[in-house]
Amino acid sequence: MPSQRDGNYMNVDSDSDISLLGDGDGDYHLRGKNKGKGKAVDKKKKDKGKSKAKDQAYTWEASYTRSWDTVQEDEAGSLQGAVEDWIARGRRRRLLAPAAAIRRTIIRHLILLLDLSTSMMDRDMRPTRFDLTLEYAREFITEWFDQNPLGQIGVVGMRAGIGERIGEMSGNPQDVLKSIADRHRLEPTGEPSLQNAVDMARSSMSHLPTHSSREILVIFGSLTTCDPGNIHDTLDACVKNKIRISVVALAAEMKICRELCDKTGGQFGVALNEGHFKDLLFELVPPPAQRAMTRAAGSGATNPAADLMMMGFPTRLPDTSPASLCVCHSEMKSEGFLCPRCMAKVCDVPTDCDICGLMIVSSPHLARSYHHLFPVKPYDAIGSLADTPDAGLACHACARIFPTTALTSTSTEGMSPLNRYRCPECHNDFCGDCDVFVHDVVHCCPGCGK
Questions:
Q1: Is 130 in a helix, a strand, or coil?
Q2: Does 364 map to a domain?
Q3: Which pLDDT tens digit goes with each residue over 310-346?
Q4: What are the start-end ranges of the zinc fingers (C4-type) (predicted)?
């Protein structure tokens, strides 16, 4: 019987976890549970090569590992040029937007469809598509309610082949944000069903009045959809009910998603990266323009006459008022709002009275919704003071003194080298910061009030 270790022979028990490694020259080395001993030279080289490959970033990770390259300093070491480019892009976007009054729907109802399938766990968008979608959805809901205070949002999820109602349609942004706050409750699983989710969203908006808009926003990350029937029948029902569907795709363009948007008048876009994903999402914050009705045979008007709708402005109760039951939650509260028609008490506005059905709004909410109908015209960039001899010395809004010489030698499209912008209506001059603040926040010119 040969010995346990005789030359190149070694008796190894069959159920042992020790394996043989040969280096090609007849020398064998033991590899057991003690991984620090007995490794072959070529194995070390392979491990060294693997560790070196792990240190190198993937191609799709380059934008994250060197994210500081996206903001470049100028010759003087300042970041002012990068900031001006960002402001210039916003100004060019405002210049391309229609400045004339457009008929829009200020009372909006939106259903947010979230893809909760396993494809949302892909890491092509960091940290994952799912986490990034939840983060952008929270920002979108906050901005949407800020720009559309009279609107309502509901949330529906797509996972495991069904449509799941995550949040009821509500006009309170805190309730909508609370419905998507628990990440573990929304854990992705299974395949999405576009037809089931759209049907659920359509049925939840069937009772809405005709003067309000019906919109569906789909954030879709999968390349497949598991539908129980013909999705084109659902599409025809959405067209009949005048529901506008918009899709933001995270993977690639699908023909059915494109048809959903084209036939209903919505917007479709494929996110190229995280920044583009957010841009596509926030383009849907302003209310869409109302589509003209199809011209009927023998009729001259393309749109029906505008109908008046009844609204009520409630009376706000102070905190020191005696506690009473509210009709929305049946809880004893001191503060609240009284319906002007039936004197019922509600907690928040805007809302619909649960007793008489009157739409209760506050005057600031109604006034803020009107800025979409009458947008502030883009200010003209002043290139030199030779054409404007009567120019003021300071900004009309913040009283900051304008520079007398050009701030930059290079001219950027849409930017004024003198940091001076003039309102085409009142001909008052504003600085760059006030220009951005007026068009993005105030939505009203301080000089002319338009």
A1: helix
A2: no
A3: 889 999 999 889 999 999 888 898 999 999 999 999 9
A4: 339-356
Q: Is residue 234 located within the same domain as residue 260?
A: yes
Rounded to whole angstroms, the Cα distance separating 373 from 258 reads 28
Q: Where are the alpha helices (DSSP H) in 352-397?
A: 363-369
For the domain that residue 246 is a member of, what is the CATH number? 3.40.50.410
Q: Is the distance from CB of 204 to CB of 111 less than 8 angstroms?
A: yes
Instruction: Please tell me the distance from the alpha carbon of residue 220 to that of residue 399, in angstroms, as a whole number.
Output: 48
First to last CA, the chain: 104
| Whether the Cβ atoms of residue 119 and residue 221 lie closer than 8 Å to each other | yes
- Amino acid letter, 59: T
Which one-letter DSSP state was computed for residue 230? -
Q: Which range marks the domain in which residue 404 is found?
A: 374-450
CA angle 43, 39, 36 (to 5 degrees): 125
In this structure, the answer to whether residues 225 and 130 fall within a common structural domain is yes
Q: List the chain residues with pLDDT less than 70.
A: 1-101, 291-307, 387, 389, 407-414
327: in domain: yes
Q: How many residues appear in the chain?
A: 450
Q: Which residues pair with 219 in a beta bridge?
A: 114, 248
Are residues 191 and 240 both part of a single domain?
yes
Q: What are the pLDDT digits (tens) for 79-107?
A: 666 666 666 666 656 555 655 567 778 88
User: Residue 265 in contact with residue 292, Cβ under 8 Å?
Assistant: no
Q: Residues 293-309, buried b or exposed e (16+ Cβ, 10 A)?
A: eeeeeeeeeeeeeeeee
pTM: 0.71
Residues 151 and 272 both lie in one domain: yes
For 118, phi then psi, to 5°, come to -65, -20
CB-based contact 166:157 (threshold 8 Å): yes
State how beta strands 152-159 and 108-115 pair.
parallel
For residues 390 and 428, the answer to whether their CB atoms sit within 8 Å is: no
Q: Are residues 256 and 114 in the same domain?
A: yes
